[in-house]
Specification:
With 295 residues, the chain is α/β, with parallel strands linked by helices. The chain is built from ten helices and nine strands.
């Protein structure tokens, strides 16, 4: 999992901000599973102009150059540490993990027959989510990460939690295809602060691959930056000025575009929550628990 985002400035006095936000409302309203599932999420078709801006953006800027930009930036600028993978926002880490733990417990409770044997940390970096969350819940956790440099650091970084480490796969998310022995394999697949680096089409294909790797009763958790509800755009490229030459090859999507991508992948939202507390100077962060439309 890589870094959270500030839309206005590169650094934030986060310690004071977190203290003042301890009882603050979430940036986006909470939506429980019942309210979400009242909609038919699996059979909604958009018109020809739906998310036209996003489609035009990827037609112009998607492809190998997009991925090379992101990979190059992180290899050059991110050290293999919590400071590096959180891009200097490590003071946000404890609040992030606490909210994630609460969300995971709630998401598990909604799934009959959900087990806690094996999880996949996708876009794992050095294994921050594995160390502080997944290894405290699941017997074993596999890591999927595109950077060998990050994976090399993971066993040492995990320390006392390294006994929960399963397999490590050096592979980009867009290249993730579960082999036959990993179909119906994972109880939970956790994906945090990394799908911002995927094109929309590759995001859909990645989610389809995750669904194939999921056990019956399992969940896919996406935790990601989103645009604010009052932002009219489909997506916003990262970096100074928001241009297509974004410094790290990322995009922040609207909540509606995220939901459309989930539908295209054959998934429905079982639970949705906003990260709270969270500084209002940062982009909002939303957590989704996704399950296949067809069991």
């Amino acid at each position: 999992a890589m870094a959270p985002r500030s839309p206005r400035r590169p650094r934030l006095a986060v310690t004071a901000a977190l203290a003042s936000l301890a009882a603050a409302p979430a940036a986006r309203a909470f939506r429980g599973g019942e309210g979400v599932l009242a909609r038919d999420q699996c059979h909604v078709q958009g018109g020809p102009d739906k998310f036209r801006d996003a489609k035009e953006f990827w037609k112009k800027h998607g492809g190998e150059s997009w991925y090379k930009r992101g990979a190059s930036w992180w290899e050059k600028n991110s050290e293999a540490s919590e400071h590096g993978v959180l891009n200097g926002f490590e003071a946000l880490g404890p609040g992030d993990i606490a909210a994630s733990a609460k969300f995971l417990q709630e998401a598990q409770a909604k799934r009959r027959g959900h087990e806690t044997k094996l999880a996949l940390d996708a876009g794992a970096g050095i294994g921050r989510i594995t160390k502080h969350l997944l290894s405290t819940v699941y017997d074993k956790v596999d890591l999927l990460e595109g950077s060998q440099r990050m994976l090399d650091e993971a066993p040492k970084y995990l320390g006392d939690q390294s006994g929960h480490l399963g397999h490590m796969f050096q592979r980009e998310l867009r290249a993730f295809v579960p082999p036959e022995d990993q179909v119906n394999h994972y109880d939970t697949i956790w994906v945090q602060w990394v799908v911002i680096y995927l094109t929309d089409d590759d995001f859909v294909q990645f989610l389809k691959a995750c669904a194939r790797a999921l056990k019956p009763g399992g969940i896919i958790v996406i935790k990601e930056n989103v645009l604010r509800d009052d932002d009219p755009r489909d997506l916003q490229p990262g970096g100074e000025g928001g241009g297509a030459s974004a410094y790290d090859g990322s995009v922040t999507r609207s909540p509606k575009l995220m939901e459309d991508i989930f539908k295209d992948a054959g998934l429905k939202i079982d639970l949705e929550r906003a990260q709270a507390p969270w500084p209002d100077t940062m982009l909002p962060v939303t957590m989704w628990s996704l399950v296949p439309c067809q069991p």
